[in-house]
Amino acid sequence: xxxxxxxxxxxxxPALSRRRVAGHIxxxxxxxxxxxxxxxxxxxxxxxxxxxxxLVSWRFLTRFPSTLDxxxxxxxSALWGTIWVIGLTILFAVPLGMGAAIYLxxxxxxxxxxxxxxxxxxxxxxxxxxxxxxxxxxxxVRWMHFDRSVLSAALTMxxxxxxxxxxxxxxxxxxxxxxxxxxAYALGxxxxxxxxxxxxxxxxxxxxxxxxxxxxxxxGEAAPxxxxxxxxxxxxxxxxxxxxxxxxxxxxxxxxDRPQKEFHQLAAAGIVVLLAVLFVMNSVCxxxxxxxxxxxxx
Amino acid sequence: MTSGRGYRRFREGGIQxxxxxxxxxxxxxxxGIVVVLVSESxxxxxxxxxxxxxxxxxxxxxxxxxxxxxxxxVWGTTVVAGGALLIAVPAGLATAIFTSEYAPLWVxxxxxxxxxxxxxxxxxxxxxxxxxxxxxxxxxxxxxxTEVFNAASAAIVLGIMILPTICSxxxxxxxxxxxxxxxxxYGMAATRLxxxxxxxxxxxxxxxxxxxxxxxxxxxxxxxxxxxxxxxxxxxxxxxxxSIETMTAYMVRVCLGDAPAGTxxxxxxxxxxxxxxxxxxxxxxxxxxxxxxxxxxYE
Amino acid sequence: xSVVSTQPQSPGRxxxxxxxxxxxxxxxxxxxxxxxxxxxxxxxxxHKAAVREVTLDIPPRQVTAIIGPSGCGKSxxxxxxNRMNDFIPHVHVDGSVYYRGRDIYxxxxxxxxxxxxxxMVFQKPNPFPKSxxxxxxxxxxxxxxxxxxxxxxERALRQAALWDEVKDALHRGALELSGGQQQRLCxxxxxxxxxxxxxxxxxxxxxxxxxxxxxxxLIDGLKxxxxxxxxxxxxxxxxxxxxxxxxLLMGQLIEVDETARIFTNPSDRxxxxxITGRFG
Lengths: 298, 299, 280
What we know:
The complex is a heterotrimer of chains A (298), B (299) and C (280). With 298 residues, chain A is mostly helical. Chain A has helices spanning 5-11, 16-52, 58-62, 76-107, 112-125, 129-143, 150-174, 178-186, 191-220, 223-228, 248-257, 261-297. Chain A folds into two domains: 16-55; 60-297, MetI-like (MetI-like fold, Orthogonal Bundle), CATH 1.10.3720.10. Chain A is 76% helix and 0% strand. In chain A, α4 runs antiparallel to α9 (191-220), α8 runs antiparallel to α9 (191-220) and α11 (248-257) runs antiparallel to α12. Chain A is globular. The relative contact order of chain A is 0.13. The mean pLDDT of chain A is 89. Chain B is an all-alpha fold and 299 residues long. Chain B folds into two domains: 2-44; 59-294, MetI-like (MetI-like fold, Orthogonal Bundle), CATH 1.10.3720.10. Chain B is built from twelve helices and two strands, in the order ααββαααααααααα. Chain B has helices at residues 5-47, 50-55, 71-102, 105-120, 123-142, 151-176, 179-187, 192-203, 205-221, 224-230, 247-256, 264-298; strands spanning 59-60, 67-68. In chain B, strands 1-2 form a two-stranded antiparallel ribbon. The longest helix of chain B has 43 residues, at 5-47. The longest helix of chain C has 14 residues, at 209-222. Chain C is of the alpha/beta class. Chains in contact: A-B, A-C, B-C. The interface between A and B is large, with 84 and 88 residues.
């Protein structure tokens, strides 16, 4: 049976114009969805800036919060609390995370144990932050009697950041080509010598990107610290490991939760400072990625 | 080289041991979480039966008569997380389809930093945005009876928060579908809409499902944004424009309050945390399995 | 039916395999209007021309083979015939391609409508991850077929010489079939739309010799109903299966003629060199 084009055309009703219109509508919807993210971000930043930008000043950064005259207050306590907590977190989490990743990537033999550890780390990355707070509460605050101190906070945030740091560092190490390792071995290096002088420098930009990403998250996290008993409204800065503290996101939370308008302005100003800090860290990340590209090409 | 071979081997072994200890911290962390959650919940469950906990519909730990039925909190979490998915999945998926099937390359390059920024904004900021902008300027004009704290604003900002996750994972899933399938479909006189929705999307489905599940787990665990936006009224309400309480918001409430250690209210946060951990763990586990199966097909 | 050549080829001297001309093959009336013609067609990717000023007629109900060394632009030329090059970024097309008298690259002409009439089979079999039945029926369904789908599927699978092998497993996944079966499925899928022209881009290059032979037999039967344009890097295949052969070199059409004449007495020196294996 031969189907001439005319006969075939009768059996098919391609409805081309209808399908074309449907295609345009669909494309329009997808475009709108894409624009939604941009619009959402723009609205959020505009709202924050409009409300709080005017309040941000050197005074704001160097004064303690005030209940009597809220708008004269500042975020000195929260800022220094964040610096203390994050500084200590870096001290704990970075060596531990790097060590774990180096072990898993360079030392551990592929097998069930390694697989389970990596699976475990991936699961830990998905555990809600507040659960880490619960862990820290029971372990550091109560059991080890560190109480509601900067030390407890830093240890808890370290545990929170470890999975992300380990995964990112492992990826950075895995990206180093094997030829580098083989060359080092061929010159008689031990495994640690090979890792320390050849693999680590090559993986450095990637590792730092991961670390900074983990720390960015830690800076913005309030939930675990709330559980740990961080203060919300204090007028002192920490001076020792066992001092009490507050952090930027908690200060913002406290201000945002109050009904009075002045506190909303303060909250917005605090957010501006918080986002500025994160923006700086993100820019460092972008710079590191550029450095990494150049390293690979050069 | 003054160090002898023996010394070097000792040092190497020592370094390896040190590194192994670092890796074992992660195992200890998981162990610690499980041990703490379970052991601290035991006293609670001696006071409140697990059945009453899991099936009760009144959560009034601080008011007499006290009731510890967790369902209102679970419902609050469900409404907020479900609402977030309702917003983020269509928007994220449509965005992913747009960048992978329709748009030229530069669109993805512009969108990537936008999504990274959205993903990096802390939870408190979204909570503030919900309270300060979404409720008064978006919801109130549309639904005048909207309360100051309401589930809808929490769902909206949570949706914006998880949108980058869904978008980038779905984009990966769509791009994993081989070009040859698209070519075959175009060759049969299909339009771009038909190729995207009837060939590419079904082929990428398990990857999309995994993405949605991962985003869901994240939404369930979110704390500060929903605490600020949705409020502290645990109730089984169908109306999204009133205040509710999620599991995470309850934990914040108790921790910020004055409940002394050892009381039932205090112990209740461990029970709720245990439930939360179990839920997110289960969702993440299913998501990992689905993702693994997807990767198997396209690797 | 053409016979697969079992003679080993001695290097340097090409001997076409013996062909048996079947009695039932009726060549189209002489002077039949070409169904497709290109006119000084040039296709360039980022200013690098892959096809240069090719003017070629495709006569109806025949198999036209396009041969040439790899990289000579055969696939690009083929894909230009149903506007599949549109999906490649930075592609530029000059000249015209006329299908039934109309330039398919004219602004306002619809590539989707074109592709229903000009179908394509690709180098690597690419069935959809669906059942055999749904693979064959998919295109027809999209294009609003109003007849009986079961009949359509059976007819297409019979024409593709696959029916007997899958008739009891129509609803099993297409990916469970062997490579050769998958390619025949792709052919069935394409001809289910009842196109006028079937473009085949090295359809056998990913298949073993037995599967290749079956598809070559198939092509021979297809030309009763369809016009076939076949790109192949296998000269013996072109000789076995096609009625006309076009030789492309570096994007330019060197020579096009009846297959028998091209392979026994080509007019151009370069064609002669390629056929005798001097290069490519």
